[in-house]
Amino acid sequence: MLRDRMTFAMAIGVPVLQLVLFGYAINTDPKGLPTAIVSTDSGPMSRGIVAALQNTGYFRIDHILSSEREAEALVETGEVQFMVVIPSDFSHRLIRGERPSIPASYSARLLCCSRFQWWARYLCYWA
Questions:
Q1: Cα distances (angstroms) measured from residue 85 to each of 16, 39, 54
Q2: Is 89 exposed, middle or buried (0-12, 13-18, 19+ CB in 10 A)?
Q3: What is the pLDDT of residues 14-73, one digit of tens each?
Q4: Close Cβ partners of 63 (under 8 Å, ≥ 6 residues apart)
Q5: Coil, strand or helix: which one is 101?
Q6: DSSP 87
Q7: 47 contacts 86 by C-beta, under 8 angstroms
Q8: Is residue 118 scored above 70 in pLDDT?
Q9: What does pTM read for this prediction?
Q10: Contact 53/46 with Cβ under 8 angstroms?
Q11: 109 Cβ contact partners less than 8 Å away, ≥ 6 residues apart
């Protein structure tokens, strides 16, 4: 292979070219996911969580609902890809020193969203 320079150039050049092209073409970091928020808690803590989710740039809050059923219907129809549920006693439990959970679900159409479920856990931890 050292004698045939063209074969050597192709063996090195083609994989490097593929790395460069596919490295820029394939983006697994989605931004602006259409999101539905189900918030039955109107306290400042829950509003802070919603603002923090929107400020990440990963979420685009399209709907703020009061019913989980409505949000699940939006996820099933594909109108939103992510749903975050803030429970009615969220602020109260935070003030008492507990660590309330924030259930989040996402559409199976977007497989890379598992990292966003981690992000929701992270926000709840630091709230």
A1: 45, 6, 14
A2: middle
A3: 999 888 888 777 766 778 889 999 988 888 888 888 898 889 888 899 999 988 899 989
A4: 35, 36, 37, 70, 71, 74, 80
A5: coil
A6: -
A7: no
A8: no
A9: 0.64
A10: no
A11: 78, 81
